[in-house]
Write a structure and sequence with these properties.
It is a single chain. Helix content is 56%, strand content 5%. By secondary structure, it is mainly alpha-helical. A hairpin with a 4-residue loop joins strand 1 (48-49) and strand 2 (54-55).
Length: 88
């Protein structure tokens, strides 16, 4: 099972709001709830196509995944995370 930190969820919420030209942290509770609902849907929806074997993710989710992987690469592998690229 995949676990996601609060910081990563918040970053994801920021990306969803940014798509609408808004800043999540500055929104009133009712508008934040809208993005929280979008986030739940994004994380819970099964986007695996069994016929093709492909998992499709949104551009926002892809951006968050990239930022998170770069963060952990730098954290565990050094300054720029160069060792993260297994093809290098």
């Amino acid at each position: 099972m995949q676990t996601i930190s609060i910081e990563n969820l918040f970053y994801f919420l920021e990306e969803l709001a940014k798509k609408d030209g808004k800043e999540y942290a500055k929104l009133p509770d009712d508008e934040q709830a809208k993005y929280q609902t979008q986030l739940k849907k994004e994380l819970r929806t099964n986007t695996f196509d069994a016929r093709t074997g492909v998992i499709t993710i949104s551009p926002e989710r892809a951006k968050v995944a990239k930022v998170i992987s770069e963060h952990y690469a730098k954290l565990f592998l050094g300054k720029g995370g160069e060792k993260y690229d297994k093809n290098a």
